[in-house]
Amino acid sequence: MLRRRALHAVALFVAAPLLACADAPRVGQPGKDVEWVPTAPSVARRMLRMAQTTARDYVIDLGSGDGIIPISAAKEFGARALGIEYDPALVRLARQKAAAAGVARRARFVQGDLFAADFSRASVLTLYLKENLNLALRPQILALSPGTRVVSHRFGMGDWAPDEVSLVDGHRVYLWIVPANVIGAWSLELGPQAPPLELEFEQRFQKIGGYVMLGPVQAGLRDASLRGARIGFSYVDRDGVRREFRGSATRMRMSGSFRADDGARGRWEATKR
């Protein structure tokens, strides 16, 4: 896929003679879904920093163009990276640049259609597409592992609000943390001596709310938050004591610790009903 990616800074990327070859990108050249528009190295670097990229990450760039993000991820952050690009000439150019930067083993490039690509292994996913393409990819993105960081240059995800927005050199960059899917009914257990409680979550992307049943009382959840797999909420029990819960969530189970304003502490678990 032809993509918007910047010419590389000399320290990270390849020298002018290589860019003079026939495969060199031209600003505005047409591609399968978008035109080529360069991204400044400062923007690519900020994208990776927003995602808090480390050497433990696997960065996948959809529509990688001349390879600026995968090469930067490998050289500056020590990450493994994969660029998926539709145009075979740009794939060849990105491979040449990765070799010139000394990161060809950590930054790989493949030719392919991003809509047919498997990017499920990404811990960091980077995009510089158009919003309609982001929206078309959104179901696959939301199915990624909770906690996966998704960074987009310039274009949003419709009504999925970003977790962070940065502005660098006049360019807007968006970050989303893929949330766990917690919507629905759960059975909340506070220990072997306490009967399980019915817990219900409502969810719209990373925004959650809900209630817990305390006998005949439906107590609303306070301070409900979800960031990746990390979940938090609180409620006021039948004695007027606020109980605060923190933990992690998967699709079918949650667990963590709680504390109450009266000093009580303990572990909690919840199972999807």
User: Looking at CATH, which topology of the largest domain would you report?
Assistant: Rossmann fold
Could you tell me the strand content as a percent range? 35-45%
Spatial order of strands in the largest sheet? 11-10-9-8-16-15-14-13-12
> How many structural domains in the coordinates?
2
**Most strands sheet:** 9 strands, antiparallel
**What is the highest CATH level, the class of the largest domain?**
Alpha Beta
Low-confidence stretches: 1-23
CATH H level of the largest domain: which superfamily? Vaccinia Virus protein VP39
In round numbers, the mean pLDDT is 90
State the share of residues found in helices, binned by percent: 10-25%
State the secondary-structure class: alpha+beta
Number of strands: 16
Q: What would you report as the Rg, rounded to the nearest angstrom?
A: 23 Å
Task: Report the order of strands and helices.
Answer: HHEHEHEEHEEEEEEEEEEEE
Secondary-structure arrangement, i.e. CATH architecture of the largest domain? 3-Layer(aba) Sandwich
Q: Count of helices?
A: 5
3D shape: elongated
Describe this structure in words.
This protein is of the alpha+beta class. The protein has two domains: 162 residues, Rossmann fold (3-Layer(aba) Sandwich), CATH 3.40.50; 89 residues, Beta Barrel (Lipocalin). Helix content is 18%, strand content 37%. The protein has five helices and 16 strands. The chain has a nine-stranded antiparallel beta sheet, with no helix packed on it. Strands 3-2-1-4-5-7-6 form a seven-stranded mixed beta sheet, covered by helices on one side. Strand 14 and strand 15 form a beta hairpin. Helix 2 packs across helix 3. The protein is elongated. It starts with 15 loop residues before the first helix and ends with a strand. The N terminus is likely disordered.
